[in-house]
């Protein structure tokens, strides 16, 4: 059976430590890749690890590691190797050819999750653009990461004329998707102008994936945004209103989560969504305070904000999942981030203090003190 048609639902993870990411431990990489893999609904059967001093141009890993991967995959009956690094299109192709097993890299895996999650027209277009850009240089391998996309693109054999035909088709489609996305952006920009005229305050909820952004949106506004203990549960931004002190109308915008080492192309594809972040009055940076890697995750989010020109916005740091913290951890994070607001979005704890802080930071209305501070969900807009 050609590899293209075989399933990719049982994975052997290949965890590599490279020179430029020597700060990330095997354990951390393994846990992240496992979560990503499971979020893509692929089962993890096992993992192998290796240190890479200098990537092999042909296969990224050396012969010995290839042999080990082959044997473990066979022994576990894995049908896909998932790498925690990004491979060049040729490297992925070469490994597939040699080992006769599907190969996915970290970006391919993230795109796979995005593809499953996007629901709105805009979300789907953004994901399709990212997938097409990823797919273009990868045509010609045995397995096509996104073969189900683009109306059968890549479903034929790897002959050169056919490949050229597919490439042309993809380039055309990229152009079309970009044009459609431009229309979406224009539409969004009109909506934003309308909000500005009505003096709404817009608050973008941003943060690392799985930090609890959608849970917080739901808690603050009574919305019913999709919440799940998986990475990238949210792909489509949702906007909901609440009012503070009966008058200040606030629009909260939920956004796609960030993750470290997101390829630039991928960030670019979410331009329309990220524009909402850039144009908002204030950012709520939600951090999972119970995660041992919270500090590193905060740094990643700040880096992405820089990349999208939103680093200088007024920001309130929200330390979420308070209910999971013991007293020691609370003290520790309290001293580390004294200006942050501690909440539990799930238990709806600390929300009034958070809204008061938002009100203060925006300076739109003088805070009236805790006792007579009110907010209502589902404000009419
Ligand atoms: N214990 C606890 N769990 C929480 C809290 N807030 C969110 N969670 C859980 O964390 C997981 C992720 O929550 P989401 O709201 O989907 O997180 P998100 O930041 O929107 O995630 P993405 O959309 O995937 O980026 C879910 O299982 C939530 O139930 C909290 O305050 N306490
Ligand atoms: Mg979410």
UniProtKB/TrEMBL annotation:
Segments forming a coiled coil: 160-187
InterPro entries: G_HFLX_dom, GTP-bd, GTP-bd_M, GTPase_HflX, GTPase_HflX_N, GTPase_HflX_N_sf, P-loop_NTPase, Small_GTP-bd
Domain Hflx-type G: 201-366
Record's keyword terms, sorted: Coiled coil, Cytoplasm, GTP-binding, Magnesium, Metal-binding, Nucleotide-binding
Compartments where located: Cytoplasm
Main location: cytoplasm
Domain of life: Bacteria
Listed cofactors: Mg(2+)
PROSITE patterns in alphabetical order: G_HFLX (PS51705)
Positions contributing to GTP binding: 207-214, 232-236, 254-257, 320-323, 344-346
Single Gene Ontology MF annotation: GTP binding
Amino-acid positions noted as binding Mg(2+) in the UniProt annotation, renumbered to this chain: 214, 234
GO cellular component: cytoplasm
Pfam families: GTP-bdg_M (PF16360), GTP-bdg_N (PF13167), MMR_HSR1 (PF01926)
Entry similarity comment: Belongs to the TRAFAC class OBG-HflX-like GTPase superfamily. HflX GTPase family.
Entry function: GTPase that associates with the 50S ribosomal subunit and may have a role during protein synthesis or ribosome biogenesis.
UniProt-listed HAMAP family: GTPase_HflX (MF_00900)
Subunit-structure text: Monomer. Associates with the 50S ribosomal subunit.
Protein name: GTPase HflX
Organism: Candidatus Danuiimicrobium aquiferis
